[in-house]
Write a structure and sequence with these properties.
Number of domains: 1
Radius of gyration: 40 Å
Strand content: under 5%
Number of strands: 0
Largest sheet: none
């Protein structure tokens, strides 16, 4: 029974090592070429790991740069839209003031009209 448990334990350890190696090989696959990152002893070579980390960090850096660029574009759009809305509000306020002035002029002019018979002001 001990030998059966020992065999199962050894198989599980070997299986997990193979999965780990497969994952390393999958991670290092880029640009259509698979690069070997293990030395003859089965240990991860430092240069291979360095290359892998560089690729991962470069991809992350490019993604961050794209996001920053998008945010800068949105910031410019917000500034442009904000300026346009500010101008529209100023034009509306000026137009509203002119309408009030015209309303006052019309009301004063109507008061000065001679009274027509049967029409009371």
């Amino acid at each position: 029974m001990k030998s059966a448990k020992l065999n199962e334990s050894t198989e599980i350890n070997q299986s997990s090592e193979m999965d780990g190696r497969g994952n390393i090989h999958e991670l290092t696959y880029a640009g259509g070429a698979l690069r070997q990152v293990e030395n003859s002893d089965g240990e991860i070579a430092a240069s291979g790991l360095s290359t892998l980390l560089r690729r991962v960090s470069e991809a992350s850096r490019r993604e961050i740069e794209n996001l920053v660029s998008e945010l800068q574009t949105l910031d410019k759009k917000l500034q442009t839209d904000g300026n346009r809305i500010q101008r529209d509000i100023e034009e509306y306020a000026e137009l509203s003031q002119h309408v009030m002035q015209l309303t006052t002029i019309i009301a004063d002019s109507v008061k000065k009209l001679p009274s027509a018979a049967g029409i009371s002001p």
